[in-house]
Write a structure and sequence with these properties.
Blueprint lengths: L1 H11 L4 E5 L5 H12 L7 H6 L9 E6 L4 E14 L5 E7 L3 E2 L8 H15 L4 E5 L2 H4 L12 E2 L9 E5 L9 E6 L6
Parallel strand pairs: 4-6, 7-9
Antiparallel strand pairs: 1-2, 2-3, 3-4, 3-5, 3-9, 6-8
Helix pairs in contact: 1-4
């Protein structure tokens, strides 16, 4: 993780923000940021239901901090099973979200920096794929597309065209079909 974050910090040093690992001290600031950016209805989304009661994947909870150390952006990835393979075994993957940047900081590349750092760290940790529900036009630039999720479903309502995946290992999601379920560490 340190090597990825050092690279991101060096690249974005003049931008007056840094990408860093989330700490327990960031929880309140992160939740407040998510409430401001996404509103309280964010807790009703299918993705949130998968994350509820779980901890993010090891080393995959990142924040962007301003020059004073305040949290101005956040992204987390969660362990999931992306259906089952053709052999009937669970397909391990990650679910990304939420990604949020403080409204006063938009247009500075913070969301993109968080995405690149999260994807790089997930790849470095050996994960095979990342899934998300989000704006297709935004996430396609990071390599996320709907074709790899065509045989997968989210629990509860979701927009099929916004259900996207990025394979970190070629062919990881080939043949994967079924329901996305949480598989990560539980809270408490």
């Amino acid at each position: 993780m340190a090597a990825v974050l050092d690279t991101v910090r060096a690249f974005f040093a003049p931008s007056t923000y840094a990408i860093d690992s989330e700490t327990p001290a960031d929880v309140v600031a992160r939740e407040n940021l998510l409430d401001r950016v996404m509103g309280p209805e964010r807790r009703n989304k299918s993705s949130e239901k998968i994350r509820r009661g779980r901890l993010p994947a090891e080393g995959l909870a990142l924040v962007a901090r301003d020059e004073d150390g305040h949290v101005i952006g956040t992204v987390r990835l969660w362990n999931i099973e992306a259906g089952v393979s053709q052999q009937g075994t669970p397909v391990e993957a990650l679910l990304l979200g939420p990604l949020a940047v403080d409204c006063t900081q938009e247009g500075r590349g913070i969301g993109g920096a968080l995405m690149r750092a999260a994807i790089a760290e997930a790849a470095q940790r050996g994960h095979g794929a990342v899934l998300l529900v989000g704006d297709t036009a935004y996430y396609e630039r990071f390599g996320f597309f709907a074709d790899k999720t065509q045989h997968l479903v989210m629990p509860g309502p979701f927009e099929r065209s916004r259900f996207l995946a990025l394979e970190l290992k070629d062919g990881w999601l080939n043949g994967a079909a079924g329901m996305i379920v949480a598989s990560g560490r539980k809270l408490g």
